[in-house]
Amino acid sequence: MMAPLPFGWIQKIKNSMALEPLKVPSDLPLGELQKEVHDWISKHGVRYFNELTNMAQLTEEVGEVARIIARRYGEQSEKESDKAKDLGEELSDVLFVVLCLANQTGTDLQAAFDKKMNVKRERDHDRHHNNEKLK
Fold first, then answer.
1. Can you spell out the DSSP letters for 44-112?
2. Fold designation for 28-124
3. pLDDT at 125
4. pTM of the model
5. 94 with 57: CB under 8 angstroms?
6. Rounded to an integer, what distance in angstroms lies between the CA atom of residue 127 and that of residue 121?
C-alpha cells in the first residue's frame, strides 16, 4: 500500500516503515535533525519501529525526563542511582523519538513549528503579561 506524504512516498510493509529517501528542507534546523535521524535509521536501524511502538517509546522517554525533574527540581528526594542521570541525554532521547515519528508520518517539523510559533505570537502576545497569576 502506497500513501502520498509531503516528503514523497513512504511504503508501509507489514506494519513497518520501509526506508525511502526523506525529503525535508534540510537547510533548516529541524529539517537537518530529521535528515540526520533518517540517515541513522537507514544505516544502523534497518527500519523505523511502527508508530505505536514509537509512541510507547516516547511515553517511556518522557517518563524518564519526568523522573529526573520530579526528583531533582521537585519535592521528591533524588535516589543515589538517579544522581548521575543526564537530563540533556534524556531530553535528547525524547527528541529522537519525536523526530522518528515525524519522519515516518511525513511531518515537516520545521514548518509545523514555525506555524505554531506564529499562532502563539498572535494569540498569546499579551496573554501571559495580563495573567495575574504570573505576576
1. IISSBPPHHHHHHHHHHHHHHHHHHHHHHTSSSPPPGGGTT--HHHHHHHHHHHHHHHHHHHT--HHHH
2. Helix Hairpins (1.10.287)
3. 80
4. 0.76
5. no
6. 10
